[in-house]
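We include the pair:
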Amino acid sequence: MTSGALAGLKVLDLSRVLAGPWASQLLGDLGAEVIKVEKPGSGDDTRGWGPPWLADGEGRATSDAAYFLCTNRNKRSLTVDMTQPEGQAILRELAVQADVVLENFKVGGLKAYGLDYASLAALNPKLVYCSITGFGQDGPYAARAGYDFLIQGMGGLMSVTGRATGEEGAGPQKVGVALTDILTGLYAGNAILAALLHREKTGQGQHIDLALLDVQVACLANQAMNYLVSGTAPKRMGNGHPNIVPYQDFPTADGDMILAIGNDGQFTRFCEIAGHAEWASDERFASNAARVRHRAELLPLLRQATVMKTTAEWIALLENAAVPCGPINDLAGVFADPQVMHRALRVDLPHAAGGSTPQVANPIRYSATPITYHSAPPQLGQDTEAILRELGRDAAEVARLKAANVV
């Protein structure tokens, strides 16, 4: 039994890799019971996406990669061969008991097994069934496989990410994490919760169709609107911002820092601290709109000023004047940061292989139903026997299913 806002909710997770598992981990963090269905013998592809590998209690490498560990806590692992009729029957039985089914197979991929929405909804009309694909359930690209890197390119994100044309190292650049997958997982979590609320009101489940491409286009945000309003496609600007200046990285005496100046008052205070109060009254720089127009003139002046102090000196001065700024941390710096440590964004959970596994905490902070971390990412098939016994299979039947490679 779990605790949390979604305690009592049952999720059958047929997804793998990142977008779907990110959504089901979120639901698990919120208290849902999540059964992760994996292929016998190999499991989720990401179990093998290493190194690095988790170490067991004696320091030996396990078979689980760090990638798998990032998105599979608070789940139970059930191995089932869904290509076998008995495996399909087990999954249908679980779907009848479930509130949510989550899958990211190709369009139509589960129909042959009787595990598509229409088949399962006929057995459980209240089922909320979420399908995640690269391009959606319809359209000219529906049959294509979709991967985050591919979608970052097709969906426009790489057209606005990377150094500006003419600069050294210019060219399209992907984001350093699989951001489209992550965003799709978050959209899936929101969609599922809204569908559950609709079911609460009407008694009806429904099918959710989520596409990586749709999500990526939706998340272009201001860049998409800049294009739709102006008719001009935004270009890559490195760390610069198309609508705000100064809002990017600047060199310091010992490295770099971020200036994120969002209004004219902040700019005035920065100029005073930098010893150039006259910039704030210069008609070229007095307003954000003017600074955007005269970006090429202002930025060299700022860089000449910022190199005169260290990053720490700038941060101390600017934070005291309420001018947004900060360092550019590597991951060691992130997890050593006092605020990150205070907010307990690292969590360590006991692992079935012995020892513990580090986790990055869920960022949601509830006042009444706090996030709980009741289990580390499971070993492959760790809960198979227990789940089958809960379905009424006795020890002999479980042994037979294992011998037949059904589970």
Summary: The CA atoms of residues 312 and 327 lie 8 Å apart. The first strand starts at residue 10 and ends at 13.
